[in-house]
Damage-control phosphatase ARMT1 family protein
Amino acid sequence: MPHAPSAPVILGNEPGSFPRSVLAERHPAIIRQVREAFPYGPATHRALDALLDSCTKGVIEPLPATAGDRDRWESWGLAEYAGRSWYDVPWLWSESYFYRQLLDAVGYFEPGPGQGIDPFRPFKLAELDAPETDEELAALDGLSTRDTGQALLHGSLWGNRADLGFRLSDAGAGTAAAVPGLVADDSDVLWSLLPPSGTGTLVLIADNAGRELVPDLLLIAHLFDGGRVERAVLHVKPYPYYVSDATPADVLDAVRRLVDAPGAAAAYGRTLWSAMTDGRLTVRVHPFSCAPLPYADMPDDLRRELAGAALTVVKGDLNYRRLVGDRRWPPTTPFAEVTAHFPGPVAALRTLKSDVITGLDADTEAGLVAAEEQRWRTSGTHALVQVRA
Ligand SMILES: O=P(O)(O)OC[C@H]1O[C@](O)(CO)[C@@H](O)[C@@H]1O
């Protein structure tokens, strides 16, 4: 068996690093934002205070004995990491566990008034209702048939920039013009895996709701309309995660937003509506979608499902980190090598919002470093389409 490539796992403890700033600054900001989202009662405020204390000054706490997913989390690393500093464990793990603990603080999992209430819903709905969303949908009316596929692929790709958590630390991120900064572009290979008259299944592992999920859905509708796929499976998160990650409720809100829109957007919405109604488009929530682990560790049932897809499209920065492994790879490490574990053809569509990168050619890396030192890795102004057929 060929030997799998490796590189150091990213932790949160390096002074001045991006991961450290997420743990030390972004997570407290998210707690503040959630605190103000709803008129929570005193017990929730106390629980949020305790989480703030734990994640800034304390250690990783276990889940309550009543938590239905406690065993799962123990096997995902909690047994090993409880009692350790949030900064000293893999950053992928500590970020993911932060969101699990945040939901605990607002009573998301326990019977009571907070059960099932998405603490991020006000921000997601505001984005879906924003005038920018109207403008993006109106632009569909002007697309020429010849370019539609590529335009929708780019819409889905750059939609990943509109990430609510990301905007907490970069106020201009959602509005600045997208630099035409594709650092890798395998879109020809992607289209070759989805030929017209395709009879296969597309799996799309979604990332953010709102202005990312809408273009993801438009892309899926386009693939149905063009006969490039027979079925599509949209994987979303089983519970609110990373502020804006899509859940099943967000999918329904987005499809309704489309069917209620004027012009071409409504036609795409109707394609999706009927595909959902007759079962060609299904929404899946797999527990592993919120796991703090790389996809190399995916469970067998998910592995079997993805093995049967004509293509799995993996959206966004976090999913990229999970796909290639959240490690300090030399940027020229081949994408095909770090995704060799994946059970079928896979495409990553991602704007660059964290240090992890693979699959660059040496000239591209040198050009980016010369122009921006290392800022291109996290600024969200560059993007990639990488495919392993
Ligand atoms: O929504 P996306 O594209 O997965 O981005 C979320 C990103 O937020 C961060 O976790 C930082 O909070 C990124 O590094 C991460 O990967």
Notes: The pocket of 6-O-phosphono-beta-D-fructofuranose is lined by residues 22, 26, 95, 160, 163, 165-166, 207-208, 242, 316-318, 321, 353-354 (CB under 6 Å). The longest strand covers residues 231-236. The two ends are 20 Å apart (CA to CA). The chain has two domains: 18-105, 121-388.
